[in-house]
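Changelog note: in this version the structure field was regenerated for every chain. One regenerated record is shown below for reference.
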Amino acid sequence: MFAGVGAIVKATSASLPGEVLVFFRNLVGALLLLPLLRLGGVSLHTPVFHLHLLRALFGVAALYGYFYVLARIPLGEAVLLTFSAPLFIPFLARLALGEAFGARAIGAAVIGFAGLLLILKPGTGLFRPEVLVGILSGTCAAAAMVCVRQLGRRREPATRVVFYFAVLASLVSALPLAWAWQTPASATWPALLAIGVLASAGQYLLTRGYACAPAGQVGPFTYFSVLFSTLLGWWLWSELPDALSGVGALLVIAAGVIALRGRSTRAQTL
């Protein structure tokens, strides 16, 4: 599902700005989720609205960065950079929540950052600022996950967390449309609908997976998104990673698996 979202965004970004794509991804997701949440009888009263808003801001920022790099670098590489989020979670959780992290998290971070350096290629003349944006996107995604963890500590129901993210992300991503709006062509509307549907379906399935098994067992399988994205990039755009990027990707995936298997709590996603 997530690989499909990336492929459609990459194909559509040639005709629409990222701000419009992010808005419709959030709007369609909200329209799909709200009826389900209403049936569940969600109470809107919350004593931690600021945490919901902070989570939405970080989540939307991560989407902007992700959609930006999708239009500029190979599909598999863009998805991989987004999946660097687990490398940053222990450090952000330490700063924001006071959670301790052990040797496993430090080792995963060293391996993962070495992989990111191979992808970034500093000092080789191949330095690409868009890769930095991708890493920043992964950092924002990690910050959003830390916000979700804090919401869980405050005993916010999962349905309320989903509701506020759907609504606030749509409202926040609507603001840039004041200067970036471009009316989609009629042929583009199915793609915009598909982005929201696939993203929502992917989130739902991933959440169900985490409900059925520990995060350490489920989390590593999320990296199949990188494999599927690489295959789609090769099939649709003849994209293949160079040797350094290939090795870097393997290191980042290995680090992410180590970090995810070291987590004892259930994971929450954007």
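Spot check on this record: Confidence is low (pLDDT under 50) at residues 264-270. The first helix runs from residue 2 to 12.
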